[in-house]
Design brief:
It is a single chain. The chain is built from 13 helices and 18 strands. It starts with 19 loop residues before the first strand and ends in a 20-residue tail after the last helix. Helix content is about 30%, strand content about 25%. The strands form 4 sheets. The chain has an 8-stranded mixed sheet with strand order 6-10-11-18-17-16-13-12, with helices on both faces. Strands 1-2-3-5-4 form a 5-stranded mixed beta barrel. It has a 3-stranded antiparallel sheet with strand order 7-9-8, with no helix packed on it. Strand 8 and strand 9 form a beta hairpin. By secondary structure, it is of the alpha+beta class. The chain has 2 domains: about 100 residues, Nucleic acid-binding proteins (OB fold (Dihydrolipoamide Acetyltransferase, E2P), Beta Barrel); about 270 residues, Bira Bifunctional Protein, Domain 2 (BirA Bifunctional Protein, domain 2). It binds 4-amino-1,4-dioxobutan-2-aminium adenosine-5'-monophosphate and magnesium ion. The site of 4-amino-1,4-dioxobutan-2-aminium adenosine-5'-monophosphate (4AD) has 23 residues, from strand 11, strand 17, strand 18 and helix 13.
Length: about 450
């Protein structure tokens, strides 16, 4: 690189109109005819079209530009011009090229600007990541993660992270990844919740935020084996208080993305009309009423967008399937809370409803447009003897959970919390068909590589 070259990120080109700069990146695509070559240069911060005109550059530069292969790394210098087709937008600048330096000539690149099958793209995930849609989705993810922290940190929550290596199940024994902990079986955490509950007695309002693991035997567009979950837990908070926190957090995330990821959402061709409506309060639906709504629609032989078959009936006491969740969400113009699920379909730690122990003080938030459950939470059982009975009913070993029961013996209080899955939330905000595109290297039932 020459001394007087000014390497700038593409994202900042707005500040360099009519000045000469150098871009450092990769050749995403190339077109041209006659005396013109158009280089689409990507540098991680954005995409810029660099226009090479024969006669205006040295013959060596023109030939280098013409010969450059897709994904070659290069330096491109030139004068920044506002692109009249997209003035003022990120990417709305062109480079009037003066010089091109090839750094590494890429071998023939397997991903071409055409339709590829998902299996092929997943095998080449390390390369697929470079494409514009993946770039946009992962940037939205980063924004969502930051917004989660921003909101919680400013609302008095303390980030206290919880262990990944754990001795016990918290969300059922069927989805545990078992590892060998020096001769003793241990499990990758399905949730940090139980430890979070200990932490509230020290800090009041806490959250943990990290990877969680579920050996899900199902291959759906919503399930990963490894996903990130943020889990707020709050002392002196009941089910209503919990829903208020959830709707504020979720609305904040969506609004941050609309304001600060407009370009990324445009790259993803996301219709943001429905997202713009996401503000508190969200509608609240009792499980009993949800069942009645579903079965009334079943009587009318309704179908649900995205599902070929008729909406299946539901028996009171059963958990919802994806078509049910999609149907319920479609009844409202915002995310909807479904609360008071049957105790038998939920985890052992949920507080039963007073006078009606067959339902528990639980709540799931269902996202619109078929994205399904994005948060799950509840009021926690606060009575020690009730908790012991629940552990016994679920055949969970009391010794392993004795510390958790202790929390109910030393200053027990009403408390609640929830977990929000980052990937499902990002899939919804981005309008992606499958959660696999919301994380750089997804772990799916049949995908462990690369
Ligand atoms: O409903 P879940 O299982 O709740 C818990 O784990 C609670 N302990 C959380 C809490 O109260 N602190 O999971 C919470 C959320 C779901 O709503 C979903 O968004 C996400 O985690 N999730 C998954 N995301 C991707 N792949 C999977 N296999 C997921 N399982 C759950
Ligand atoms: Mg759940």
């Amino acid at each position: 690189m020459q001394r007087d070259e000014q390497v700038v990120p593409i994202r900042t080109l707005v500040d360099f109109v009519d000045q000469e700069v150098t871009l450092r990146g990769w050749l995403q695509a190339k077109t041209g005819k006659g005396k013109l070559v158009f280089l689409q240069v990507r540098d991680g911060s954005g995409l810029c079209q660099a226009v090479v005109l024969r006669g205006k550059v040295s013959e060596a530069t023109f030939e280098a530009a013409k010969a450059a292969t897709q994904e070659s790394s290069l330096l491109v210098s030139g004068v920044v011009k506002a692109d009249p087709r997209a003035p003022g937008l990120p990417g709305g600048y062109e480079l009037d090229v003066r010089a091109v330096t090839l750094l590494n000539e890429a071998a023939p690149y397997p991903i071409q600007p055409k339709e590829h099958g998902v299996e092929f793209l997943m095998q080449n995930r390390h390369l697929w990541l470079r494409s514009s849609r993946q770039w946009a989705a992962l940037r939205v993810r980063a924004r969502v993660v930051r917004a989660i922290r921003d909101w919680l940190d400013t609302q008095g929550f303390l980030n206290v992270d919880t262990p990944i290596l754990t001795p016990a199940a918290a969300e059922g024994t069927t989805t545990l990844f078992t590892i060998d902990y020096h001769g003793e079986p241990a499990y990758l955490a399905q949730t940090g919740q139980l430890y979070n509950e200990a932490n509230i007695f020290a800090f009041g309002k806490v959250y943990c935020f990290g990877p969680t693991f579920r050996a899900e035997k199902s291959k759906t567009r919503r399930h990963l084996q490894e996903f990130w979950m943020v889990e707020p837990e709050i002392a002196f908070c009941d089910l209503d208080g919990l829903m208020e926190i959830e709707e504020q957090l979720v609305s904040y995330l969506v609004q941050r993305c609309l304001e600060e990821c407009a370009h990324e959402l445009a790259v993803l061709e996301r219709d943001t009309t429905a997202l713009q409506r996401v503000s508190p309060p969200f509608p609240r639906l009792h499980y009993d009423d949800a069942v009645a709504k579903i079965n009334a629609a079943v009587e009318r032989h309704e179908t649900v967008p995205g599902y070929p078959d008729l909406l299946p009936p539901i028996r009171w006491g059963d958990d919802f399937g994806s078509p049910h969740e999609t149907f319920l969400a479609a009844q409202f113009d915002k995310p909807v809370f479904v609360h008071h699920y049957p105790t038998q379909v939920k985890a052992f730690y949920m507080e039963p409803e007073v006078g009606r122990p067959e339902v528990c003080r639980s709540v799931d938030l269902l996202a619109p447009e078929g994205y399904g459950e994005i948060t799950g939470g509840s009021e926690r059982m606060s009575d020690a003897s009730q908790l012991v009975a629940a552990l016994e009913r679920h055949h969970l070993p009391l010794e392993t959970y004795s510390w958790y029961v202790d929390l109910r013996r030393y200053g027990s209080v009403v408390h609640s919390g929830f977990g929000m899955g980052v990937e499902r939330t990002v899939a919804w905000i981005c309008g992606l068909e499958h959660v696999r595109e919301t994380t750089a290297f997804p772990r799916l039932l049949n995908v462990l590589r690369p």
